[in-house]
Amino acid sequence: MKKIITMILIVSVLGVGAFAFAACGKEAAGKYVLYAPDGAPVLALADMWGENVGDAEFEYGVIAETEVRNKMTSGDADFIVAPVNVGAEIHSAYERGKTPYDYKLLNVTSWGVIYFTTNQDGYKTREECETVNEFLLQFEGKSVSTIGRAAIPGKTVEYLFDYAGAEVTLNGSEAAAIKQSYATGADMTAIFAEPAITAVNGATGNSVTVLASVSDIYKEVTGKDFPMSGLFVRADVLENDAKTTEAVDKRTESSVAEFNDNIDEVSVKAEEIDGFTLTAAAIKNAYTKMNVRYKNADGSKADVETLLGHIGASCYDSLFA
């Protein structure tokens, strides 16, 4: 009887040990949440959306751009696509002891979806101007609407106008309001984004004239590419699970490659993402104008530092994963 009890105890201990080991292994593999704001930022991840990465389980969520900052300050996001200035501000706040959660830039995937647009006469395209200054100075004394007045679009265009010495009144406006003005034929000159420009022109017969890409003008002025948004990882996730973080980075790179190489398939995948509002047709029509490209943290560092410096945002060296 004593031997039987001893054997039962041994089996029980071994069973508990095996259970604990299995549970520990599952915990080590991790279960993570990845968010991306609706619209163009989702497209870089469309091919990988819904997949588990490496040994880790993943949950994905499409959010409004207005939710990005909250997802980071609350620490709800393990991985998140965010404008580079927002990620830099969160990291800066952490460095100053103002927020408990830190985020690092893992890669940059969006290199500018914004354009100088108009439905009014009297403006020249960049190709029709001899110099970049001539292009920018044609807005002197004018009123221009812009999405993201206090964010990267508005701050970048403000920097470009200042560079040329052009006195321009920049008015913040929601993308929906600009789209409505163009759709109804109301006079409008605006910093507007793809794929909405292509969608409006498809519905109205090319009523919107694209004067230039902000990315192209910015590169002419600075010599650098224009990094709008990228994938950030919460710092403790990077520290505790470097293997999964690396796997996510690599899968992002291949997802971007699929977007650019197999747009027909990826646009259909994107349209089927829960909460995503772009159609496959809109994506296919505009994808060459959305500048979806991959650069890792090291490869994008100089571009990010330059942009943040020009728009007056802090940039710590420790921002980069």
How is the biggest beta sheet arranged?
6 strands, mixed
Rounded radius of gyration (Å): 24 Å
Relative helix content: 40-55%
Q: For this entry, what is the oligomeric state of its chains? A: single chain
Runs with pLDDT <50, length 5+? Answer: 1-28
Write the H/E string, N to C.
Answer: HEHEHEHEEHEHEHEHEHEHHHHEH
Number of helices: 14
Percent of residues in beta strands: 15-25%
Which shape, going by the Cα principal axes? globular
Indicate the mean pLDDT.
91
Order of strands, widest sheet: 2-1-3-10-4-11
Helix/sheet category: alpha/beta
Number of DSSP E strands? 11
User: How far is it from the N-terminal to the C-terminal residue, by CA?
Assistant: 60 Å
Protein described:
This protein is α/β, with parallel strands linked by helices and 321 residues long. It contains 14 helices and 11 strands. It has helices spanning 2-29, 40-43, 68-73, 84-95, 132-137, 152-164, 175-184, 196-204, 214-222, 235-240, 242-261, 263-271, 280-286, 297-310; strands at residues 31-37, 57-63, 79-83, 103-110, 114-118, 143-146, 169-172, 189-193, 209-213, 229-234, 292-296. The longest helix is centred in the first third of the chain and has 28 residues, at 2-29. The termini are far apart.
